[in-house]
Specification:
α1 links the parallel β1 and β2. By secondary structure, the chain is of the alpha/beta class. The chain has one domain: Rossmann fold (3-Layer(aba) Sandwich). 38% of the residues lie in helices and 16% in strands. It has a 6-stranded parallel beta sheet with strand order 3-2-1-4-5-6. The chain contains 7 helices and 6 strands, in the order βαβααββααβαβα. Bound molecules: flavin mononucleotide. This is Flavin prenyltransferase UbiX.
Amino acid sequence: MPVRRIIIAITGATGAIYGVRLLQVLREIPGIELHLMVSDAGVLNLHQELGMGRKEVEALAHVVHHIRDVGAAIASGSFQSDGMIIAPCSMKTLAAVAHGLSDNLISRAADVVLKERRRLILMVRETPFNLAHLRNMTAVTEMGGIIFPPLPGFYHRPQSITEMVDHTVGRVLDLFAIPHTLTPRWNGMKQDD
Ligand SMILES: Cc1cc2nc3c(=O)[nH]c(=O)nc-3n(C[C@H](O)[C@H](O)[C@H](O)COP(=O)(O)O)c2cc1C
């Protein structure tokens, strides 16, 4: 079976759970090789929000890259991947991607994914947005990236945070055409009895 490679980056926006849940779900799917980077602020939030340390999260990936290692395989377009998900994506990393900064391996790998016309998903998180945030999201969209703020839906009547997170994670997997059963599919309005 050919290996599908997916690059995941966890940055310092709130919502570290999205990155962790993506790793947990994807590692159970055969034939997927997970490449992971965690920014310094991402490590802070993993600890603050989930009580998880860097090593524990890195153990969920097949390959771990340090964000200063700009010589890593994923820094080159010749490294074949299906694409990259930044989950969650801070406004700082959004800005770096929007402006092609490539100032660390996260923004460089995203830059490469964009130039190779592969899937790039930014699970941006901030509220409210200022004009710089909005312009940066527009710029990434114009370059072919997908701005995917993790905004929960309520129409499926979630009973827990896990259900809300899984609903969003499932929609991200849909964008990579990865089959999953994380959430029921919407089949139209149901009549209440
Ligand atoms: C607890 C905590 C929550 C944060 N939440 C957000 C957030 O939701 N969105 C955001 O853009 N930055 C947030 N930040 C700020 C970023 O972590 C900060 O801008 C950092 O420089 C981002 O760097 P990185 O993109 O390299 O991870 C938060 C910081 C902390 C400590």
